Amino acid sequence: MSLAFRVEKRDQGSALFRSLTIIASVLVALFVAGFLLLAAGVNPATAYLEILREALGSTYGISETLVKATPLIITGLAVSVAFRMQIWNIGAEGQIYMGACGATGVALFSGLDAPLMLPAMFAAAFFAGGLWASVAGLLRARWQVNEVIVTLLMNYIAILLADYLIYGPWKNPDGYNFPLTAQFVDAARLTEYFNTRLHSGFFIALFCALAVYLLMERTIWGYQIKAIGSNPAAARYAGMKTGLAIFLVLALSGAIAGIAGFSEVAGLQHRLQHGLSPGYGYTAIIIAWLARRSALGVIIVSLLMGILLVGGDSLQLSWQLPVAFAYAFQGLILFFLLAGDFFINFRLRWVKEDADA
Amino acid sequence: MLEILLDATVRAGTPILFATLGAIINERAGIINLGIEGLMLIGALSGFAATFTSGSLLLGVVAAFVAAFIAGSIHAFITVQLRGNQIVSGLALTMFGIGVTALFGRSVVGQTIDGFERHALPLLSKLPFVGKAFFNQNWLIYFSFLLVGLIWFFFYHTRWGLNLRTVGENPAAADACGIAVNRYRFLAVACGSGIVGIGGAYLSLASTPMWIENMTAGRGWIAVALVIFASWSSVRALFGAYLFGGITAMQLRFQAMGTTVSAHVLQMLPYVFTIVVLVISTIRQQKGASQQPGNLGLPYDREDRK
Q1: 3-class SS at B83?
Q2: B49 touches chain A (CB under 8 A)
Q3: Domains in chain B: how many in total?
Q4: Would residue B293 count as lying in a domain?
Q5: In a domain, B121, yes or no
Q6: Any alpha helices (H) in A219-324, and if so which ranges?
Q7: Quick check: A307 and A65 in contact, CB under 8 A?
Q8: Which one of B74, B85, B103 has the shortest CB-CB distance to A322?
Q9: Alpha-carbon torsion B298, B302, B305, B306, what sign?
C-alpha cells in the first residue's frame, strides 16, 4: 500500500471560495515577489509597508492612487469587454496612445472653445482608439488572423507613431527642442480637485464602468457578446452574426481604451509626451483577468493595482528600482492566479493505492 | 552593396530565427507560448552576465539556454500540469521576463564584453555572392544553421519527433498509444524556451555586446507571428527570419543614408511587415491544408470527453 494523490474535477465551488482563492493567489505572489526584492537588496517587509504608506497614508497618496486607477479602470474595462467574447485585446497600450494622439490633435489644432473642446477631444480619442483596434477586428473577423499577435504588434507601431508626432510635426516650436507638444489651453483640460492631481477623468472612468455594465447585462448586444463568448458555434446556429460582432467588439474595446488616452492627456499631462503610459494597457489584461466578468470587479482591482503602482513609484525613488520592476510583480500575480484556478477547478485527493493495482 | 545588405540580413535575422525555432517546438507539442519576448530577455541578460563574469562566450550561451529553460518550465508547469490558460500564462511570462531582467540587469548596465567575432569558414566563405553573407559569420550563426537541420531531422526522422508531433496533433490518440503526453509537452516547452533564450543571447553577445534594458524591442512577438508564416517548419522559419532580417537591414540602411523619412516611421516597417506577412500566411493556410497542430492551445485532460 502506498499513499498517492489523484487529481479530480470539481464544481467551481462557491463565490466565497473563488474569491478567497484569488486573494490567496495574490498574497502568495506578493510573498514570492518578496524574494525578488530581497535578491535586489531591498527588505521586502519595509518595501511593502512603504507601498501602503505612500499609497494610502495621506490624502495626497490616496489622490495619487485614484489618479493611477483612472486609466487602469478604463483600459481594464476595454480588455474585459473583449474577454467576454473570448477575444484577446492585448493592444490597449497602443490604443491609449492613439486615443491620446486623437485628443491632442483636436486640442492643439481645432481652435474650438470651452463647451465644445473637451467633447470633441473625447470623440476624437474614442474614434482613434476604435479605429486602431478595428484593424485587428477586421482581420480577425474576415480571415481569422490571430488578434493577440496583431493587437500586440500594433502597440509598437502606435508608440512609434506618437513618437513621430512628438519629435516631428507636433513638437512644441517654443519647447527648446524637447520632444513634447505645446501645453493644452485651459479649455482642453479636465477639472482638477482638492489641489491634487485628481481630475474628472476618474468620474469618466466610473461612468464607463456603469455604461459597460448596462451594455453587458441589459442589452441584446451584450447578451450576444456573452453568447458568442461561451459558445461561438451555438451562437452562429442561433443566427448571430459572429464575424460582425467580433469586429464591433474589438472596435469598441479599442475605443474605450482610447478614452483612457484622452483622460491622461486632458486630465493629467496636458500635452502629448513620450512615455505617456507606463504599460497601463498590459496591466489592464491582469485587471480584466482578475475581475473576471464584473465591471465592479474592474474598479476594485484597478484601485488595488493603483496602490501597487503608486507604491512602486516611491520604491523606485527610494531604492532606485527600475520602472519595469512592476511587470515582474504583475507576471507573478498572473502565474499564481492561474495556479489558483487549478484549485478552483480540480481537487487533489489523497488515495490509498494497493501495491498490485 | 547587395552583399553587405545580405550580410546584415543574416545578422539581423538570426535572433528571430532562434526564437522562432524555439516557438515552433513549443507549438508542435500543442502549447502556445506568448512568453517568447520575456524568454529572449532572460536569455539575453543571463548570457551576458555569465560571459561578463567568466569571460567565456560558450558559457554565456549555455547560461542563456539554462535560464530560459527554467523560466519556460514555469509556463510548462502551469499549462501542462495545471492545465492553465496558455495565453495568460505566456503573457505573464513576458511581463515577468521584462521585470526581472530590468531588476537584475542594473548591475551590468554599461558594461561591455568581447562578443562573438566573425570566423570565415574555409572554402564555403569563398562561394560567390552567398559565401560572405552566410559563411563569414560568427559561430552562433553557424549553430543556428545546424539547429534548423537538427530540428527538421528530429521532427521527421526520429521516433521522439513523431511522438512529439502526435502529442500536438491529437493528445488523446498519443495517450492511447502509450506516449507520455505531459512529459513530452513539458520538455518541448522547456527545451523550446531554452532555444528562445539563445536567440536573446545572440543580441547581448553578438549584435551589441552589452546589456540594454528591454533590448529585444518586440522581436519575440515577431517570432510568434513568424511561426505561422513558417507553417510550423524549421526550414521555412529560416526564410521567415531572414525576410524579417532583410526589412530590418534595409530600414537601418535607409537611416544611415540619411533619408528625409523620419526614423520613427522607418522603425515601424518591421512590425507593419510582420502583420502583413501574418495576414497573408493565415489566408494561405486556410485555403490549403493547414499545418497548424490540431490541438494547439488546448489543455489535455485524459478524463475529458471528446
Answers
A1: coil
A2: no
A3: 1
A4: no
A5: no
A6: 220-230, 232-237, 242-263, 280-291, 295-319
A7: yes
A8: B103
A9: positive
Give the C-alpha separation, B163 to B154, whole Å: 10
| Residue range A70-320, CATH number | 1.10.3470
| CB within 8 Å: A328 and B96 | yes
Report in angstroms the alpha-carbon separations of B185 from A27, A41, B70.
29, 36, 15
Contact B226, B24 (CB under 8 A): no
Q: Are A251 and A137 in contact (CB under 8 A)?
A: yes
**C-alpha cell at position A55:** 499609497
C-alpha to C-alpha distance for A184 and A169, rounded to whole angstroms = 16
pTM of the predicted model as reported, rounded to 2 decimal places: 0.90
Grid look-up 533619408 returns B259
A contact residues 164-203, partner B, Cβ 8 Å cutoff? 164, 167-168
Optimal mutation site among B46, B77, B79, B103, interface A, most CBs of chain A within 10 A: B103
Measure the CA–CA gap between A356 and A200, rounded to whole angstroms. Answer: 70
Q: Write down the domain spans for chain A.
A: 70-320
**B265 is written with which cell numbers?**
516611421
| B283 in a structural domain | yes
pLDDT in tens, chain A (357 residues): 566 777 777 776 677 887 888 888 889 998 998 998 888 888 888 888 988 888 888 888 899 999 999 999 999 999 999 988 889 999 999 999 999 999 999 999 987 887 899 999 999 999 999 999 999 999 999 998 989 889 999 999 999 999 999 998 888 888 787 888 888 888 888 888 888 888 889 999 999 999 999 999 899 888 888 888 888 888 888 888 888 999 999 999 999 999 999 999 999 999 998 889 888 998 998 899 888 778 899 999 999 999 988 888 888 888 888 878 888 888 998 899 888 888 887 777 777 665 544
Distance CA A204, CA A73 (A): 10
Does residue B51 lie in a domain region? yes
**Of residues A268, A331, A344, the one with CA closest to residue A26:** A331
Query: Residue A144, SS3?
Result: coil
Is B273 part of the contact surface with chain A (CB cutoff 8 Å)? no
The domain in which residue B68 lies consists of 2-113+131-287
CA-CA distances (angstroms) from residue A276 to A163, A204, B147? Answer: 10, 19, 41
d(CA B70, CA B244): 28
CB of B287 within 8 Å of any CB in chain A?
no
Listed in order, strand segments (DSSP E) in chain A are 2-9, 346-353
- One-letter amino acid at A79 equals V
